[in-house]
Amino acid sequence: MSPNSVFDKSFSLIREYDEVKNRLGTPLKAYGRDHGGNREGRRNFIEHTQYTDQEDGTNRTRVRYNLEGKFGMAFVFAEVSSDMPSGEFVYILVQDKRNGHVITVVDNRSAIAATRMAGGSKEGMDAFSKLLGGGKS
Fold this sequence. Notes:
By secondary structure, the protein is α+β, with helices and mostly antiparallel strands. Helices cover 29% and strands 29% of the residues. Strands 1, 2, 3, 4, 5 and 6 form a six-stranded antiparallel beta sheet that branches.
């Protein structure tokens, strides 16, 4: 759950996502925030926040970094939870800097909320599945 591992794993997923490649162009380059005064080249600081979620008590890490392709630039927002298996994300969102358009690469927020409402039990998840699936098994 370190910010750099969230950065690396999320960028590897984004790099393969066709909608992002079509909008920004290839090759894609990811980097952190500029720091270090007037010199360029010091963009390896990944903005991050580590917090405990108020609703489920899990530890979470949220990162924000820059993405650049041949046709444009974007912000990336990614979050992981301590409850999820390694390599799984709460969400990965890419926001185009030109017009604010958001591309959703991964979004598990509703699944996490459904699991929480079902109490984490298999019976509760089956009930939610039937409810959301129109009663079909």
